[in-house]
Automatic annotation (TrEMBL):
InterPro entries linked: Ald_DH/histidinol_DH, Ald_DH_C, Ald_DH_CS_GLU, Ald_DH_N, Aldehyde_DH_dom
Domain Aldehyde dehydrogenase: residue ranges: 25-486
Family: Belongs to the aldehyde dehydrogenase family.
SUPFAM superfamilies registered for this protein in UniProt: ALDH-like
Official protein name in the record: Aldehyde dehydrogenase family protein
Keywords on record: Oxidoreductase
Stored Pfam families: Aldedh
Active-site residues per Swiss-Prot or TrEMBL entry: 260
Domain of life: Bacteria
Organism: Vibrio tritonius
């Protein structure tokens, strides 16, 4: 049944350039595994430095020689609108590709990811002609203009947790601002991005303005970041890889970088939260959605001691009704972990945390017998602030629990030494909420809810080692433009 589902879905398993999907004969291939079943379902080329060079140069020439950057911005916007419509029309196939290749359940892709990327494309299309430079306050015999121009080619490296959404985060603002983009998707989830680029081409994007190069991080990703014709790099992934990318961009540019990196985000629950059951559902969803493989996943529960016991019961009830399974079954509510290797990594952190004194209140282990790698939703009661589960981004359905007696204690537990991506506060006390917003050193704060929404005007990105720059919002659009100062002198006397 599963095999049939996969074999009936044609896989676009090549680099996308010159308006077509190509399997480069020169590149070696690797196997790509379906996370739901653990079985190989396709081969994928690993672009060599030479292939990357050819694909980037094609984009560089297209951005320079086509009218993409110079045409009226409203005309660029029309292409992005058509792209959004084509995504809508092809959503069934795109959702199949995403479900087979990643941890995203099909019903969630159709209800969330696809509408989300359609809206993202439209949001950035709307911005195409809503920006401009400014006139500088110069001497009266001069006119000083600051004009905004695209970088040329934007290089993007995307992760495996939300392949379509991450590709759209990078592509839509870059294209709307008049750049070309070359994306290297994760080697674990490469193919939906290829099809996204094909749809953009079908929508009327000039050839090579949106190319996709497939390959590994170390070889292909590094070659893309280091390429001299790449003007800017945007990345979502681990903090460690973000640092390597930033250093590569410094050595071969310097090039500006946008980095959206790891997190260890707290969910702080006060005893005055309006509805305990509802809050517990919100907290549970924020750690089990996509099996916790979300950068902003709310992985640290910090809760008032007086409500801890009843809250934990609510969490356990929520966890119990989750159903692990292949992403294309409608009953599946717990995603697979992206790879066996990631599942083993989660297991080793959980084991170490318990060794260091944490109490495992539920879960704590890989769910065997399902083909793919699945991890049971886990609660770890932490007694020591140095516990590994508090320090490391686990990227699985593992929630640590710490308790507090005073508000002061809550804010101090919430602060993380390394990460500052997001935080959630659950409280009905507005003064307290406002104090929290001011105190927390994070890029996003959610009050009485958790997670992003379709409000694309809200930028996303971290403080501290969770990254620099923003995706989404006007800031993401602006980050795809550079400034040119123009000083024009004229004779005031006549
Ligand atoms: O990430 P990497 P991995 C975190 C999460 C996870 C850990 C490891 O904690 O457990 O990272 O996952 C490309 N030059 N996040 O190893 O390495 C790589 O090919 C250029 C958080 O998968 O960051 C892929 O396309 N590119 C996160 C992308 O980087 C390189 C989402 C991400 O891989 C490269 C994913 C290099 N030297 C993991 N090395 C989030 N913030 O949402 C790798 N890549």
């Amino acid at each position: 049944m599963e095999d049939q589902y996969i074999t009936n879905t044609p896989i676009p398993n090549g680099h996308f350039y010159h308006g077509e999907c190509h399997l480069s004969k020169k590149d070696e291939c690797i196997e790509v595994v379906c996370p739901s079943t653990g079985e190989v379902y396709a081969q994928m080329p690993i672009a060599s430095k030479e292939t990357v060079d050819n694909i980037v140069l094609a984009s560089y020439n297209a951005q320079r020689d086509s009218d993409w950057a110079t045409r009226a911005p409203r005309e660029r916007a029309k292409v992005l609108y058509r792209w959004a419509t084509l995504i809508e029309q092809n959503q069934a196939y795109l959702a199949r590709l995403e479900a087979i290749g990643s941890s995203r359940p099909m019903h969630e892709v159709l209800a969330w990811d696809i509408p989300y990327i359609i809206d993202t494309a439209r949001f950035f299309a709307e911005l195409a002609d809503k920006h401009g430079g400014y006139i500088g306050a110069t001497q009266s015999d001069r006119l000083g203009m600051v004009i905004r121009e695209p970088y040329g080619v934007v290089g993007a490296i995307t992760p495996w947790n939300f392949p379509l959404s991450m590709a759209m985060w990078k592509a839509a603002p870059a294209l709307s601002a008049g750049n070309a983009i070359v994306i290297k998707p994760s080697e674990l989830t490469p193919f939906s991005t290829v099809y996204l680029a094909k749809l953009a081409f079908d929508a009327g994007l000039p050839k090579d303005i949106f190319n996709v190069v497939l390959g590994s991080g170390r070889e292909t990703g590094a070659a893309l970041c280091e390429h001299p014709q790449v003007g800017k790099v945007t990345f979502t992934g681990s903090t460690q890889t973000g640092a390597s990318i930033m250093s590569a961009c410094a050595m071969t540019g310097p090039k500006p970088v946008t980095l959206e990196l790891g997190g260890k985000s707290p969910q702080i629950v006060f005893a005055d939260t309006k509805d305990l059951e509802r809050t517990a559902h919100c907290v549970a969803k924020a750690i089990t959605g996509n099996a916790g493989q979300v950068c902003v996943s709310g992985s640290r529960l910090i809760i008032d001691k007086s409500i801890e016991a009843s809250f934990i019961e609510c969490l356990k009830r929520y966890f119990k009704q989750l159903s692990p399974g292949v992403t294309w079954e409608s009953e599946t509510t717990l995603s697979p972990i992206i790879s066996r290797q990631q599942a083993t990594r989660i297991q080793s952190i959980v084991d170490q945390s318990i060794k260091e004194g944490a109490d495992c209140l539920c879960g704590g282990e890989i769910i065997n017998g399902l083909g793919g790698a699945y991890f049971a939703p886990t609660l770890l009661k932490i007694h020591d602030e140095k516990n590994i589960a508090l320090e490391q981004e686990i990227f699985g359905p593992v929630l640590t629990i710490q308790t507090f007696d005073t508000e002061h204690e809550a804010w101090s537990l919430a602060q993380h030494d390394v990460y500052g991506l997001a935080a959630g506060i659950h409280s009905a006390n507005l003064d307290r909420v406002m104090r929290g917003i001011r105190k927390l050193e994070v890029g996003s704060v959610w009050i009485n809810r958790y997670g992003r929404s379709f409000d694309h005007i809200m930028p996303t990105g971290g403080y501290k080692r969770s990254g620099i720059g923003k995706d989404i919002g006007i800031e993401a659009f602006e980050a795809n433009l550079r400034s040119k100062s123009v000083l024009l002198e004229f004779d005031e006397a006549y």
